[in-house]
Amino acid sequence: MPGLMGYLPDADSLLALGPEDLGLILLDLAQKERGPRVTLSNLEMPLWNANSPAYPQHQRMPVGRCIAEAWQWLQNEGLLMPDLDQPNGWFCLTRKGAALKNTVDIDAYRHGNILPVGLLHPKIAEKVRPMFMRGDYDVAVFQAFKEVEVAVRAEAGFSNSEIGRKLMQAAFNPDNGPLTDKKADRGECVGIMELFSGAIGHCKNPPSHREVGIERQSAAQLIGFASHLLTQVDRL
Which of 113, 177, 195, 220 sits a CA distance of 20 to 30 A from 33? Predict the structure, then answer.
């Protein structure tokens, strides 16, 4: 079945999707267009021209709005742009959009989009993000917090024998920790110590001992947290 109905056989399936997932379907369809240009109408109208009970007319407006949101998302992501030669409703793929040539490329973009490189500490972007992109979520989370551990140990001047939560408690000890801000309120110092200590205990230790089975979204959130902690260490 051609067009959107080949992906989403009924209106309820389409309405259940967010702009990102629906947008990437539209992108795949745009890639398969015969010419270099595409209009939103070209992708949407086959749904209604088919006169299928799966796409009843009373759902035309909500379906159209969802498709328009997804179309706007593609533009916001820099994957689609107005065609400068045919401005009246015609669009073309950007170089970034044209580079996503198949479902493998699109899936990779979908995975990477949840962990944007611009928000990551350089070490995390270099060493951890490729693991995340491969789908090795447990390994990526472990490596992210290992980078935090290595950075804290180096900044504090400790030996390699200092590891894990004990390392964080020693480095940020509110009384004599080498990384403690002596000018800060004691309660804040305790909070920083517990933040780093808890992060290592909760995020690094479990994946190092067993298969945790971290899901993609949770992994992205934890990696972002590790990136934040590394940035804090850089500021010491």
Answer: 113
